[in-house]
């Protein structure tokens, strides 16, 4: 036990589990994955010149993320995989810190380890850990701030509490430069902690001063950011979507929380059918689950990605029914999960959520041990956690609503939930520990292994497709077809554009004025190109497709096969014609 405490072996195990799954998935591809291609090129430019230069694609500030990526380039040489490895390092640290945070919040070591693995080995977390996206960096900033706030609440001496508050503000201010929404830690979570410590005058004054300094630092960073050429601003308010659409997107995202943390949420499903008390509530909740499932199955043809889990598998989703990153927007991307699998996932996740409600309403007997024995002595109270979590969660949800309503995004993708998932996880595990049983059952281990296997396979399949796209691009160039004549998906097209221009043709760019130029429409009858106005140097004659008969049919180039784990057969990518045949 002394060895475990000294070297934090459970937390280290969580980090190593992420590393093992990532290595098994073989996450390498010589092209951009989702948004990270332009970010990687920015890190390359920083390593060469020592200057941060935006290229018309980044809405996040990126900040310290770029410096870490540039450091990896200096140490190991440039490649897309080298830069993405910096994210994996942060993901390992985040998994380690997540386990320590859960343990610090009164959760037993075994439960904290299983809870941390439930998130760190989920498809969403693992996939983002091997890209150069900003989500893992933002999560790390929020989690470090939460850890500092919890330590400040538990500190007996004023000096220690002040030190931890300084730590929370300083780390959140610096690490939040990668993803601005993470600054809600210093702006909301730390003030919530000060409210809880308001009876300690010295701590309150010192913490208020630190918060003010952090806010000034954040304001200065935002002013610097707005003046950068080719930075893409994201307005908080606008008129591109209706309030109903924005609210629907937010509800859809929140309902996906139980699925994204399935190894924990599904443990509450048996409580939905527990008999001792609350019979009417139990019957009502069970009927609600059954009615929802019937409606979801009957309407799946009209709303195939809306009601059945995973519900956030819309365009841009990282965990969806297609088993890969769905934002590739390549014609004919095949489905991976069938309706039956989706129905089971819906029962497990939504039923688990209703099981939580059943326990809260007293429809479940609860643990045999007294409530006080279910928590680690000296931990934060439930009231303190609610004061920490609720204002932060509300502020985060309001920012998501403003993004969906203000035109910063059309859909609220599942990755936007990542910063809130540790809070939901901590509350869920602690609630189970207090109200259901002091130890998570062996079923949690089985579900973690299942989700980890799916996450590893989905990550492998995603990168396998990207490698196949690179192989097709190389084949076409070997046949004398320039990269500007091929639509290889918007991620690859961005790289082609940035090799011929210093910025993406993004209409939201404000500095310098007139950076965006209107693009002439494509030839009549040609196939459409997703985000084609962003890449005016790309004029496709051919395109990449999962369907050989898409557009104007197959082109005279050999297809490329790619590996698909957990599927019956390998996948295939084809080259198709984008222009109608010439008239005789």
Main attributes of the structure:
4-stranded mixed sheet; globular; 20 helices; 584 residues; mainly alpha; 4 strands
Describe the protein in words.
This protein is mainly alpha-helical and 584 residues long. It has a domain at 467-577. It has 20 helices and 4 strands. Strands 1-2-4-3 form a 4-stranded mixed sheet. The protein is globular, with a radius of gyration of 25 Å.
> What are the secondary-structure elements, in order, as H or E?
HHHHHHHHHHHHHHHHHHHEHEEE
* Overall outline: globular
**How many helical stretches?**
20
Determine the oligomeric state from the structure. Answer: single chain
User: How does the major sheet shape up?
Assistant: 4 strands, mixed
Mean pLDDT: 88
Beta-strand content bin: under 5%
- Give the radius of gyration: 25 Å
Number of strands: 4
Sequence of strands across the biggest β-sheet: 1-2-4-3
Query: In angstroms, what separates the terminal alpha carbons?
Result: 83 Å
Tell me roughly what share of residues is in helical segments. Answer: 40-55%
Name the structural class: mainly alpha
Low-confidence stretches: none
